[in-house]
Specification:
The protein has no helices and three strands. It is mainly β.
């Protein structure tokens, strides 16, 4: 998913399990491509509130009231060069599905809402 789609990282940056995270692997980042701003996750055990807005080729992530990512997909990988040095063909996707994938750790979500930005829908 990180390469054939667009993976938006959901991760506890403070965990000892991930001591050597790269900037593009932290919570809210577009994995391998665009790092998110850090420092806005609540402590483990508290609920975070996150909004993801995908408007055309613009992706914005708002975490607990703070914009931690605001990226134009047409500008994030000039000439195909990404931060992790990998090909990310999914960056050119204009449609797709939502998936919640993981590495086996426990995670919980509540009050998930999805709405179209198209005023005709």
């Amino acid at each position: 998913a990180a390469y054939n789609a667009i993976e938006l990282q959901i991760l506890d940056n403070s965990s000892d399990r991930w001591p050597d995270l790269k900037s593009y692997q932290t919570h809210g980042s577009i994995y391998g491509v665009v790092p998110a701003k850090r420092g806005f996750l609540k402590p483990v055990g508290e609920w975070n509130r996150q909004e993801v807005i995908c408007d055309g080729r613009q992706i914005r992530v708002i975490l607990n009231g703070h914009t931690i990512l605001d990226a134009d997909l047409d500008r994030v990988a000039p000439q195909g060069h990404t931060l992790d040095g990998q090909a990310h063909p999914g960056l050119s996707n204009t449609t797709g599905h939502l998936g919640f994938l993981g590495h086996g750790d426990r995670v919980a979500f509540r009050n998930i809402r999805i709405r179209s930005l198209d005023p005709k829908q």
